[in-house]
Design brief:
Distance between the termini: 108 Å
Order of helices and strands: HEHHEEHHHEHEEEEH
Helix content: 40-55%
Pfam families: LPP20
Organism: Thiohalospira halophila DSM 15071
CATH topology of the largest domain: Double Stranded RNA Binding Domain
Low-confidence stretches: 1-9, 12-33, 94-98
InterPro entries: LPP20-like_dom
Keywords: Lipoprotein, Signal
Number of strands: 8
CATH superfamily of the largest domain: Lipoprotein like domain
Largest sheet: 5 strands, mixed
Protein name: LPP20 lipoprotein
Strand content: 15-25%
Length: 341
Amino acid sequence: MGTKRRSRLNPARVSGWSLALLLSVVAGCASGPDPQARPGWVDGGEPADYPREAYLTGTGRADSLAAARDRARAELARSFRVRVESESRDVTRLEAGELEQEAESRIRTRSEEVLTGVTIAETWRAPEEGAYHALAVLDRNRAALRLRREIGDLDRAIRRHVEAAEAARDSLERVAALGRALERQRAREGLQAHLRVVGATGRGVDSPWSTAELAARHREALAAVTLTPVATGDEAARMDAALRGALGNAGFTTSADGEYTLRAELVLTDRGRREGWHWYEGRLGLSLADAAGEVRGRATLSERAAATDEPTARQRLLDKLAERLEAEVRPRVLEMVTGGE
């Protein structure tokens, strides 16, 4: 029987293998990211995992992590709003300021909706000073996809309203349809301003219509509508002048034999004195009838006013009703025709 031989490892070879393994482990550790290393974005550099062509970013520094996160979100939001305001500056300059506040409010609301997509991607604490740093990001593609989808919905709605205006036989229905198209076109411009900021290319989606073109068509349609104003009830002469002025400023044409008749009947109620103040209430009833005499709709404007003496209280009430007519006669007339659509 032969003797079995055991294989024995060479101690020198084992030591060589161990050293090689140790060196490879050390090298692997050295090549990996150091969690304590200062990220480049802390000093304004581009985040390695969140390149600027794909993300909007903002950074924040504070003594607490929560505060650093909040400041990062606030910084991104501030920068975003400034750029959107710059892009949308022309959107808010509408027909000598008409609807300017409404446009600005709509743009602010849309900005808040877009900014709900902001997340905190990274945080880091400086070991030497103990301050916390946070990186806020907004995914450009995700935000842009939503904006493009909403712009597409608006484009389809605008097309429907324009086609309805072209097919309308009633002049006021034509005005109402073009007004809805114009309103949605202005909303589209706000979305476009956001898309130019969010999109990596800085371009939006071309519109089949221009706001200026739709606004011109709307003004022409308004001017083609002839209305006969008729004021009755209390202070009829004062209300007749206020009604004619409001209709003219709204873009309508007034005529003695208009296509429609807009009646305004004022009822004033003297409520007397209470606690040193004299009170008046007023109810202005509006009704719109077509050439056949059919009433197309009704509306009511109600106001109250007070002063230390009766004549001033009455005058203040009349002034307030005249202001309401000036501000509301166009939408009120169109609501009567369309049923508030």
